[in-house]
Amino acid sequence: MDFAGINYLAVLLAAIAGFVFGAGYYGVLSKAWMKAGRIDPVQAKPGAAILGITFGAELVMAWALAGVIGHLGTGEVTLANGIVSGFFVWLGFMVTIMAVNHRYQSYGWDLTAIDGGHWLGVALIMGAVIGWLSIGDPSVSPS
Questions:
Q1: Residues 31, 39: Cα–Cα separation, whole Å
Q2: Which tens digits make up the pLDDT trace of 71-101?
Q3: Rounded to 5°, angle at Cα 105 from 102 and 110
């Protein structure tokens, strides 16, 4: 179950873990997030379509992160390297993109902090799951 050294079970479980984390995270911070994002609480109930798109995007994200982690080399796909890789992907791409987009959309830094915290958690969790489940997996070495 691998393609270019990617452990698909790890990718699936990482996406599920990231999705569950997001549900809990925004469940706790929903009022602050809606205020920061200028979202009407009455219209804030996500439907099946948006949840499906969210999970699909997180599945792609986990797959791409697994590819990045796998390129560290044979024997380097570890829990620690998964977490570090998740952090650098978050820092270099996720939070920087949000910071720019939120400024152009005239949102405050509070929305960036809330969303940035969510994506940091997702990236760290995905990196940890991918690194942990791929330790010792011979299919996770680059060809």
A1: 9
A2: 888 789 999 999 999 999 999 999 999 999 9
A3: 40
- Rounded to two decimals, what is the model's pTM? 0.90
Q: Would you list the domain boundaries of the chain?
A: 2-140
Structure-token pair, residue 139:
């299919």
Please state, in angstroms and rounded to a whole number, the distance separating the CA atoms of residues 114 and 34.
10
Helix H, strand E, coil C: the string for 51-72 is HHHHHHHHHHHHHHHHHHHHCC
Look-up of token digits 């997702």: 122
Q: Please count the other Cβ atoms lying within 10 Å of the Cβ belonging to residue 17.
A: 19
- Terminal C-alpha separation, the chain: 15
